[in-house]
Amino acid sequence: MTFPNDDTGQVLAEMHAAGVDLTIVHPVVFFQLFEKKEQAEAMAKMLKEKAPDMQLSIHPDETPNVWDLDCTINMLPDYDAIVAQEAQLEQIAAKFNGYNDGWGIEA
After folding, report:
1. SS3 for 102?
2. What are phi and psi of 11, to 5 degrees?
């Protein structure tokens, strides 16, 4: 398998090299960060209404005064699908003064 030469492509290449089967559906987690818990809660509330199948988890980040909203979607870890989903969530997070902090697969 070959992957584009960017951060997402590199992560997928590393997963593939580690033996992760990228041809099956996995829980893919997209990480959104906020300065205030209320911002993370507001985005989570909106996502619960618009994407009821998405699993959401809010928790304090390792960095002080930062809150994480983990958005988990069962999907094929396809490069284009991940890039599109990440961009969509980043646009939504920006409306709540948050930003995207990458993604990963729950193994």
Report:
1. strand
2. -60, -45
The predicted-structure confidence for 60-91, as pLDDT tens digits, reads as follows 999 999 999 999 999 999 999 999 999 999 99
State the Cα–Cα distance between residues 104 and 30, nearest whole angstrom. Answer: 7
Find tokens 């997070």 and name the residue: 93
Distance CA(10)–CA(83), nearest Å, equals 13
The residue type found at 17 is A
Q: Is the pTM of the predicted complex or chain greater than 0.90?
A: yes
Q: What is the DSSP letter of 59?
A: E
Helix (H) or strand (E) holding 98, with range, is none
How many CB atoms are located within 10 Å of the residue 60 CB?
12
